[in-house]
Amino acid sequence: MKILVCMKQVPQKDAPLKLNDSGTWIREDVSYEVNEPDAYALEEALRQREKHKGEVVVITSGPARAQQVLREALAKGADRAIHLEDDKFVGLDAFNTAKAIAAAIKDEQFDLIFTGLQSDDYGYAQTGVILAELLGWPHATIIMQIEKSESGIRVKRELEAGYFQFVDMPTPAVLTIQSGINKLRYATLIGIKQAKNKPLRKVSLAEVQSALGENLQKIEKLYIPQKTKKTEHIEGSPGEIAKKLVDKLRNELRVL
């Protein structure tokens, strides 16, 4: 079983946000980490390989710093990596990111492609679904369990209100993995040493440029919440206080 895992480097959750000069994204001088949902996708791919043998390939897009995501995945047990390396990959929307990945793997023959359910920065939850459509493959989202079957795979999807759905799917297929599907492993010292010698193919923007188009989504402006404190004391009888409070909620705060 040959599995591709799409991974992303995102700002650390507790990193203080610093906006760039244009206010359209954050500055580069913040701390980064592996997108948590993608870590669960990698773990599930490694477990599937341990059950059924095969190969796990990891892919990411972004500047040189994003290679750390791939190195960590290789240290945990992935077999090889693909890096779409260029600063401009950061500015692509989900549609063009999926196009770039599809172009980079056009000569590969994968049985499954895993992505995390969504990224911790944008949170669009679109890249995996769009990638499936571009490839013409079936896809399923919010996956909690994967079992190999004679006709392909059987997956367990998480629905609302505590319900689940079981779906039989052919392969190749694209699955977006739900966080918490498994328990994440740590990279071993041996794994870290072996990662240095594992193949890592770099793909430039020029190699996939012909597949890309104009972004269909873009961020116009980011704002950091301003910390302000304002306390107002309302005086009067209970009836007067209630009337004044309702008036403020309706006309000033507009929550009623």
Description:
- This protein is an alpha/beta fold and 256 residues long.
- The protein has helices spanning 36-52, 67-76, 94-104, 127-135, 189-195, 205-208, 238-251, and strands at residues 2-6, 9-11, 32-34, 55-62, 80-85, 112-116, 139-148, 153-158, 164-169, 173-177, 200-203.
- The chain has a nine-stranded mixed sheet, with helices on both faces. It has a two-stranded antiparallel sheet with strand order 2-3.
- β8 (153-158) and β9 (164-169) form a beta hairpin.
- α2 crosses α5 (189-195).
- The radius of gyration is 23 Å and the shape is globular.
- The model has no long low-confidence stretch (mean pLDDT 92).
How confident is the prediction overall: mean pLDDT?
Answer: 92
What is the string of SSEs from the N terminus onward? Answer: EEEHEHEHEHEEEEHEHH
Largest sheet: 9 strands, mixed
Distance N to C terminus? 56 Å
The CATH C-level name is Alpha Beta
Instruction: Name the helicity range.
Output: 25-40%
The CATH topology name reads Rossmann fold
The CATH homologous superfamily is named HUPs
| Class from secondary-structure proportions | alpha/beta
State which percent range the strand residues make up. Answer: 15-25%
Q: Would you identify the CATH architecture?
A: 3-Layer(aba) Sandwich
The overall number of domains is: 1
How many distinct beta strands?
A: 11
Can you count the helices?
Answer: 7
- Poorly predicted tracts of residues: none
Strand adjacency order, main sheet: 9-8-7-10-6-1-4-5-11
